[in-house]
Write a structure and sequence with these properties.
alpha/beta, Alkaline Phosphatase, subunit A, 2 domains, ten-stranded mixed β-sheet, two-stranded antiparallel sheet, globular, disordered N terminus
Length: 481
């Protein structure tokens, strides 16, 4: 693999490419982008160092089991495609000792098990809040999120996600509302506060046709100097770099990576998380005083809630591509600190031993994940839309489950529920027997989680931190008052 230093022009010029595969060319792979002895203390830096920029990467709802599954599966993919058993970017960072590592406690103010709103708020304001709140204390006090301090310092801000743009984790870095479900209000706060880059899903909270107040936020953002984008071609084909950017590429959350890989219509419409991150960096890199960029793989969490092994593996791998982009960017911009973490676990995702002496584990897992061509959610979305025969064929082709007439009748009785159809399909599919992957529940979990960081100031993270400690580190590294 090439270790040639990539110039800033080279990095910024490589973003408008079609296909996630180009993000994974050999020149970008693994830790070859970074030499641990390159004259600026490798990826490590002293605790007293300050940074111009911070990139904050979040795999929302990631159990360590999820991370392990993705790493094992990537090795399998690479070996079967004669690329060698190359491991995930995150594991490379650990294996080569290129990052500061910490265990992080994730509690909220009112529960050992946090939700994403409370977890993100702890990072954003340095205090724990109740589950469901965004930067509002248990006593009702409005707390100041990181965006406000970063903007005050003269820096720019960006939020990138695979969820609705107004969902809890991106919203936590920039907005303050008593209830995370106030997504129309969150969208308006983004406009009022002037967040420079917003890329993800959730057009329904910006469109006059779907907002409860009928307000056309797209027009208001455009009048405030934002370039508005609604599909992948617009994002990747842009020839000019806008001053501000709002891109919403789906009405609600973006489809799972697994579904994009097997549906050309989705793939043409929806950019990958790494492609959105590159586009955000193009805009933010032009800001003379630096930036704070949060990038969230939010659908990892949703796949945990849905107990969907295929969706969770592929969305975790999509997140890992963003680590490669961050490595590439910091190679040419060593004044950038990068944090890679999760806000909490979800689902208790684990690979279980299969067969006598567990010797069927590898075959069960690799063959099982290889065979999956759809998320359970995507199948739910097609039920009632496709004729019965076509739906039956889709399910059989996608997850190798042959539905009987009685089972289809059962699904008919569940059509009015949000998750009833996908939950029932999952139960019939029995993913543990087919993949070896099992879940403890469909809820968040309360274990300590991994946090890693490199770049100036990353030494401020101790070996064990609380989620509230993260705020103090970012503020110190960016010299925020």
């Amino acid at each position: 693999m090439s270790t040639d230093r990539m110039t800033r022009r080279g990095f910024l010029g490589s973003g408008a490419v079609a296909g996630a595969g180009l993000l994974w060319s050999s020149s970008l792979g693994g830790c070859s982008l970074v030499d641990a002895k390159d004259g600026h203390e490798g990826l490590h830096a002293g605790s007293e160092s300050q940074a111009k920029n911070v990139i904050f990467l979040v795999a929302d709802g990631m159990n360590t089991g999820t991370w392990s599954l993705a790493d094992y599966y990537l090795q399998h993919q690479n070996s079967t495609q004669n690329r060698g058993a190359r491991r995930s970017e995150w594991v490379h960072l650990y294996a080569e000792r290129l990052v500061n590592r910490a265990l992080m406690e994730t509690c909220s103010a009112n529960s050992l098990v946090t939700d994403s709103a409370a977890a993100g708020s702890a990072w954003a304001n340095g205090q724990r809040v109740n589950n469901g709140s965004l930067n509002v204390s248990p006593e009702g006090k409005i707390l100041t999120p990181l965006h406000d301090l970063v903007q005050k310092s003269g820096r720019a801000t960006g939020l990138v996600t695979t969820t609705r743009m107004t969902h809890a984790t991106p919203a936590s870095f920039a907005t303050s509302v008593p209830k995370r479900g106030m997504e129309d209000d969150i969208a308006l706060q983004y406009l009022d506060k002037g967040v420079d880059v917003l890329l993800g899903g959730g057009s329904r909270h910006f469109s006059a046709e779907t907002r409860k107040d009928g307000d056309d936020l797209f027009s208001k953002f455009r009048k405030s100097g934002y370039e508005i984008m609604g599909n992948r071609d617009q994002l990747l084909g842009a020839t000019d770099i806008p001053e501000r950017l709002l891109g919403t590429f789906w009405k609600t959350h973006l489809p799972y990576t697994l579904d994009s890989q097997h549906n050309q219509e989705i793939a043409k419409s929806v950019p990958t998380l790494a492609e959105m991150m590159r586009a955000a960096l193009k805009v933010l890199d032009r800001k003379p005083n630096g930036f704070l960029l949060q990038v969230e793989a939010g659908r990892v969490d949703h796949a945990g809630h849905g107990n969907d092994p295929g969706a969770i593996v592929h969305d975790q791998l999509a997140f890992d591509e963003c680590i490669a982009v961050a490595l590439e960017y910091t190679r040419d911009n060593p004044d950038t600190m990068v944090v890679v973490t999760t806000d909490h676990g979800c689902g208790g995702c684990q690979l279980n031993g299969m067969g006598a002496s567990y010797l069927d584990t590898d075959k069960t897992f690799f063959n099982g994940i290889d065979a999956l061509k759809s998320s359970y959610e995507n199948l739910r979305n097609q039920f009632g839309v496709l004729p019965r025969a076509e739906f039956r064929a889709l399910v059989e082709n996608s997850i190798q489950l042959v539905l009987t007439d009685d089972q289809l009748d059962t699904l008919d009785g569940l059509k009015s529920t949000d998750y009833g159809v996908s939950t029932q399909i999952r139960k019939w599919h029995d993913p543990i027997s087919r993949t070896g992957v099992n879940f403890t529940s469909s809820n968040h979990t309360g274990e300590f989680v991994e946090l890693s960081a490199w770049g100036p100031g990353s030494g401020n993270f101790g070996s064990f931190v609380t989620n509230t400690d993260v705020n103090a580190v970012v503020r110190r590294v960016l010299a925020l008052s």
